[in-house]
Structure formats: C-alpha cells, structure tokens
Design goal:
With 307 residues, the protein is of the alpha/beta class. Helix content is 21%, strand content 22%. The chain contains six helices and 14 strands. It has an eight-stranded mixed beta sheet with strand order 1-5-6-7-8-10-9-11, with no helix packed on it. It has a six-stranded mixed beta sheet with strand order 4-3-2-12-13-14, covered by helices on one side. It is globular. The N terminus is likely disordered.
Length: 307
C-alpha cells in the first residue's frame, strides 16, 4: 500500500540518501562521528513489457513483487533502473499502464536511467514526463546522488556526441569533488558484454574516466541477461586491485535473449532467469546477490572492497 504523499516525503527525508549538490551535515565536527549506514540497492533494466500480457500478469510484476516486499522491511533501501523501463517505444501510456502498476509502486524510492527504447519517443518524453525531477535536471538524463558512504552516478548512454561531451565534463567535475569513499555508476548500454548486443564502444570514454577515478561498481543492462565481470581497468583488461567490477542486469521483465561466447573476463552469466541484483553498500565494501524470480534456481553472490 502506498503511503500518502506527505508521509512518503517525510519518510524519504529520513533516509541517508541526498543529492550531491546538497550541503552535507558536518558530522566530522563531532567527536563521535557515526559510520554511514549500509544501503541496500535493488537493480535491473529491461523491465516493463505488456505487449502480450497485462501488467498484473507480466514478468515485471513478478520482479516488482520481490522488490516491494523487501522495501517494506527496509526504509533505507533504494531501487535503480538500468534503462528500457518500458516497451516498445516508451510512450506515456506504457509508463501509466505497464510500468506504474509494477515498478511504479516504488517510484519515489527509485533512481532511474533511460534506455534506447525510451528514445523511441521524441526526446524520450514519456520517460521524462513520468519520472519528472527524479530523472535529474533539465531532461539531460544524468545526475548524482549520495547514499551512505557511496557516490551514485546515473548516466545517459543515449546521447549524441555533443551532449556526450557535456556529460563527460560533468562526470569529471563530480568525481573530482566527491568526498564519498566509494563510487557506483549506472547506465543502459554496457561498455563490455557477451550478450547479443556485445560491447558498446561509445561508452568506453565514460568507462576510462571512471576507471581513472577508481570507481568501484558499474551497472548496465541492454542485453537481456545477467553477466558479472571480473574487475577491469580503463582499457578493459583485468585488474583485480584497481579495476571496476561490472554487472549486466537486463533481467527486469522483458524477454530474455541469446548470448555469444563469454568474454575473457566473464565470471558468471545466465540468460534463462529473470530477477534483480541486490547490492549491500557498506562503508568501505559491498556485497552482491542476484535474486531470481520464484521458481528459478540461478543465483550469484559475493563481496568486494572499495578502492
């Protein structure tokens, strides 16, 4: 059941989840500085598709049920979408009729990112009209948040070259001024993937910038499967000490798709199971676990340390 708007806004205000531009409480001035709270994140992309079944019978309803149940038990948990929130072209009615009854149940606790299907509408108007300010300023599709000890960066992988340059400049600025211990970035098109779409070279410049800043985690989707990579450096080579650990999580509800041969850095992958990735973001480390929908057996879990 949704909280009334006033109560919901109050609940959000109590979470340790603030915009990067807000002035942080100066806890360092206190003698007994409390540790940042652990933050739980539930993430997936390629989500709401009601072309063959109504929303209540869609796979997105099954994955959203998992998340909604978890959110009821954890007022600090947040949700990340990895693009292609609706199908086939991101029309306003796709959001109102398919996304809203499923993943829209926790819209106010969601950090979204746009996928290529959203841009089936001019300027992705369905996406930006639905999410509003939650999708970031100026309908540009990228923004920054803080959650506990983590800097969280939502990026847009659908931009033209001129807009991408502006995003690159913004990203460098955000990374240079961050006081957070750890960094997580997410967008739609994976820089590296063994799924049907493969690597996306237009995101390699973003990857290099994040790797140079020793970012810790990158989340993407686009390929309708699950894949976890070993940590990779700015050139996409394995670097267990300083590399970025990345996940492709295109398992939110859309039909799963074939995969090519695994990459050298692929650690585990599956294209038979819908579900969501659960991340526990700690002060200097993180844990991950892929949660399959009921009736599926595939899972993946582990932990890592921030750089």
């Amino acid at each position: 059941m949704r909280l009334p708007n006033l109560l919901l806004l109050s609940a959000i205000a109590l979470t340790p989840f603030v915009t990067a531009t807000e002035t942080s409480v100066k806890l360092n001035a206190r003698k007994n500085t409390p540790k940042p709270a652990n933050i739980t994140v539930y993430a997936a992309g390629d989500i709401a598709d009601c072309r063959k079944k109504p929303a209540a019978e869609s796979v997105a309803a099954r994955t959203s049920d998992m998340i909604a149940s978890a959110l009821e038990k954890d007022s600090n948990a947040i949700v990340i979408t990895l693009g292609d929130n609706t199908y086939p072209i991101g029309k306003p009615e796709e959001f109102s009729d398919c996304y809203e009854p499923t993943w829209g149940r926790f819209k106010e606790r969601t950090l979204p990112s746009p996928g290529n299907h959203e841009y089936g509408m001019p300027k992705a108007l369905g996406y930006y009209n639905y999410f509003g300010e939650i999708a970031g300023p100026e309908r540009r599709g990228y923004y920054a948040k803080h959650a506990g000890a983590w800097q969280i960066l939502s990026l847009n992988s659908n931009l033209d070259p001129a807009q991408m340059e502006k995003q690159v400049s913004w990203l460098k600025e955000e990374l240079s001024h961050s006081k957070q211990t750890c960094t997580l970035a997410f967008w739609h098109h994976p820089a590296y993937s063994s799924g049907g779409h493969g690597n996306n070279p237009h995101m390699h410049s973003i990857w290099k910038i994040l790797a140079a800043a020793k970012a810790d985690i990158v989340l993407t989707s686009h390929d309708h499967d699950y894949e976890r990579f070993a940590p990779l450096d700015g050139n996409g080579d394995r670097d267990d000490k300083n590399g970025i650990r990345s996940f492709v999580v295109g398992t939110g509800g859309a039909k799963l798709t074939p995969m090519f041969l695994p990459k050298a850095a692929t650690e585990i992958r599956d294209n038979n199971t819908h579900g969501v990735l659960k991340l526990t973001l700690q002060e200097k480390s993180y844990e991950w676990e892929f949660l399959p929908v009921q009736g599926s057996n595939f899972s993946d879990k582990g932990k890592g340390s921030c750089h």
